[in-house]
Write a structure and sequence with these properties.
This protein has 124 residues and is mainly α. The chain is 85% helix and 0% strand.
């Protein structure tokens, strides 16, 4: 058994154990964001597994697969982060409350008036 074979066996064992733990987190995760993050980590583990397999076989044909999987993981993570309930869309959250709708409308009207006054002053 060479050192390279032992190293590849350890890498495979670590990737397998981490994949099992991530699947457990996906099953037990209390929120949808926990499950989404676990899925992203599982995708990263599978990318690492494909990269280890490519290193073992000295194969460069899997590089496009790695690039596509990485892009899909990034786009998926950004999408989940953007459309999760805790995103930074504060005005949408404020407009859901009926009491805040009037305040939000007043703030917008005040902002429009200030912009209009500023534009008139610039013309003079």
């Amino acid at each position: 058994m060479t050192a390279m074979t032992a190293l590849m066996a350890v890498a495979g064992l670590l990737l397998g154990v981490s994949a099992l733990l991530v699947v457990l987190r996906m099953a037990l995760g209390p929120t949808m964001l926990d499950r989404a993050i676990a899925f992203d980590v599982l995708l990263a583990i599978s990318i690492c597994a494909v990269a280890v397999e490519a290193a073992i076989d000295a194969n460069t044909e899997t590089i496009p697969l790695l690039l596509v999987a990485t892009l899909l993981g990034f786009v998926g993570s950004v999408s989940v982060a953007r459309f999760s309930p805790g995103s930074d869309d504060v005005e949408a959250e404020e407009s859901d409350d009926p009491d805040n709708r009037a305040r939000l409308a007043q703030r917008r009207m005040r902002s429009l008036r200030e912009d209009s006054l500023r534009a008139r002053r610039m013309k003079r």
